[in-house]
Amino acid sequence: MAKIVLLSMAYAGDVHPFAPVASELANRGHDVTFVAPREFHDSFASEPFACAHSGSDFGPSALNQHGPWLAKWGMRLGGARLLELYFGEFTVPHLDAQFDAVHSVLEGADVLFSHSTAAVVGGMAAEARNIPWISGDLFPMLIPTATRSPIAAITSLGPLNKVAWRIAQSTRPERLTYSKAFAGFRRKKGLDATVRSAIEMRISPHLNLGMASPAYIPPAPDWPANYHLTGFTHWENKGAELPAGLQDFLDDGPPPLLITLGTLAAAAFPERFDAAVHAAQRQGIRTVSLCSLDSTVDHLRATYDPEQHGAWRFAPLAKVLPHVCGVVHSGSHGTNSMALTAGLPSVISPAIVDQVWHAKRQTELGTGVHAKRASDLDEAIERILTDGRMRRVVEAFGAELRLESGSTHTADRIEAFLA
After folding, report:
1. How many C-beta atoms lie closer than 10 Å to residue 215's C-beta?
2. Which of 167-181, 284-298, 343-357 shows the lowest mean pLDDT across its residues?
3. What is the model's pLDDT at position 173?
4. Residue 121 carries which DSSP code?
5. What b/e sequence results for 94-115 when a residue is b if at least 16 CB atoms lie within 10 Å of its CB, and e otherwise?
6. CB 112 within 8 Å of CB 3
7. What sign for the dihedral angle of Cα 332, 335, 337, 340?
8. How much is the mean pLDDT over the chain?
9. Biggest CA-to-CA distance, the chain
10. Measured between alpha carbons, how far is 416 from 418 in angstroms, rounded to an integer?
11. Which uninterrupted H or E stretch holds 382?
12. Buried b / exposed e across 282-298, counting CB within 10 Å, b at 16+?
């Protein structure tokens, strides 16, 4: 059996999809260690893999403090300014600590399986150990292709797609790309110091696994030959219980509308909870809001009838989705894929550009509605509650997704690579 290290950081939606893969590999007898920020370790306590600290606390709690900044810049310049937060705030200043943490755990390992963004550090540590690394990619829409545009809101620019991707892969300006900073760190570690873009750094020369369904994101014919879609991977925290009162609320009346905006959108746009609850009120529909912040829970409980509009901190989605009639969410990878797999229609209210892509894709599939502004929520919620054709389409698509096993397929690919 092999020694396998997994690496991910940032939001729960970035970390949780790797947990079922880690468990699948551990259950097959491999020695598995998951490197992640400490705040995730307790939730993984019942899983069959070990946890190690990622060297910095690049996780939801730290990111929550930047909600106002994300609200202002998350959609601007095609999302490029997000690199100022992800790289400028949480990576470049902590390169030594993050590199040392991953490098230490990789001693004696056979392979690293890393979140594609965390791979800017993980890939370096693997190279220094002369260990191959595999990119686990939650954002296949960011793999360059002549068939699609890099601009989330535009499916294709035709012959200009290649030009747009060349611009997207630029290493300038350094204030946004940090390409020279990463190249300089690589030079310090005795590695190839070629200046590369953020898009290039997330693609492994060994193997790349897109953790999304090919039914949802059709593979592009000009993707790298070592890039394969393996399907969605959903982690169910079996050790977690629903918070007090939530199960009773779900059972005590017609299925409510679920409102859950993820960590990023909830911190950046807490007012969207109000807009969604107001819209549901006008439809005469109960709501259950799952929030990342206590302040949002307290506000919703003080403002609305608790028998009709309940609010709790985050709860295991797998235990809530069977009891609701639809989902209002931000379009984050995890919640988006879980709602689709459950066969539930979605209203997507994005906070950053990759979420715009998911909103657009759900609209194309006929499984959801893109609410670009809070003022659009009223009409969007009415539609998912009353559009019978949409419900039939998303139920059929969910049934198709449930036949896939992303965790199994991903583990199979990793084992085949090791073999």
Report:
1. 16
2. 167-181
3. 80
4. H
5. bbeebbebbbebbeebbbbbbb
6. no
7. negative
8. 93
9. 64
10. 5
11. helix 377-386
12. eeebbbbbbbbbeebbe
What is the spatial distance between Cα 261 and Cα 267, in angstroms, rounded to a whole number?
9
pLDDT in tens, 306-352: 999 999 998 899 999 999 999 999 999 999 999 999 999 999 999 88
Other beta carbons less than 10 A from residue 194's beta carbon: 10
Q: Is the peptide bond before 173 cis (omega within 30 degrees of 0)?
A: yes
Distance in angstroms (rounded) separating the CA atoms of residues 19 and 227: 21
The CA-CA-CA angle for residues 327, 333, 337, to 5°, reads 55
Write down the residue that tokens 């930047």 correspond to: 66
Nearest-angstrom CA–CA distance, 390 and 325:
13
Q: How many other C-beta atoms can be found within 10 angstroms of the C-beta atom of residue 358?
A: 27
Tell me which H or E stretch contains 51: strand 50-53
Q: Report whether 133 contacts 24 (CB < 8 A).
A: no
Q: Helices 119-128 and 95-105 meet at what angle, rounded to 10?
A: 50
pLDDT tens figures, 66-81 = 878 877 776 666 667 8
| CA R_g for the chain | 21
Distance CA 13, CA 51 (A): 18
What percent of the chain has a predicted confidence (pLDDT) above 90?
Answer: 76
Query: What pLDDT, on a 0 to 100 scale, did the predictor assign at position 384?
Result: 97
Q: Supply 296's token pair.
A: 């949002």
State both tokens at 262: 């993820």
Identify which of 404, 413, 408, 417 has the alpha carbon closest to the alpha carbon of residue 27.
408
pTM equals 0.93
